[in-house]
Amino acid sequence: MNFRGNIPTKFSLGIFRGDFRQTSDPRNFLGNLFPRNSVGKFREISEERRNSEELFPRTCFVDINECISTIHKHNCSDPSTCRNKDGGFYCKCRSGYRLDTNTMSCKRKDFGWAAILLGTTIGFLSIMPAVSCVRQKMKHRKDSQLRQKFFVQNGGGLLVQRLSGEET
């Protein structure tokens, strides 16, 4: 069984012994054992990729293309695309998306830095008018206090009394 790509697939044929270079078409070597309408290919396992204790010399395996097979179907969902690889498949997402391995579907990439930048910009633009308003009110208050102080210093109290008609 092949468990890569998150779905188990059964191989119609297991491990074979023999010289696979004796024919250009591996199906001729295997005869009628391998169905003609099957989707897949044979590949020789090289000396580096196999454990000699488990496999016989000159061993090959059948790779089923789960991306186009109707029997061994992949579980990639839109907008991802299925890509075949030896012994399985993988789902590829387009640019700007990432693969959610739980659902095998593509989701938009999270841009945490963009949210931080956007929040900072909105916060800054919201604080600017508030700071400006507070500053203007403080200036107005300071100006009023200075006018009151200068009014008293320059005899403004006497002027008020004269204008009101009170003589002292």
TrEMBL record:
Pfam families: EGF_CA. The keyword Repeat applies. Gene3D superfamilies: Laminin. CDD domains: EGF_CA (cd00054). This is EGF-like domain-containing protein. InterPro entries: EGF, EGF-like_Ca-bd_dom, EGF-type_Asp/Asn_hydroxyl_site, EGF_Ca-bd_CS, NOTCH1_EGF-like. Keywords: Disulfide bond, EGF-like domain, Membrane, Repeat, Signal, Transmembrane, Transmembrane helix. Residues 63-103 form the EGF-like domain. The chain crosses the membrane at residues 111-134. GO terms for molecular function: calcium ion binding. It comes from Brassica oleracea var. oleracea. The keyword GTP-binding does not apply.
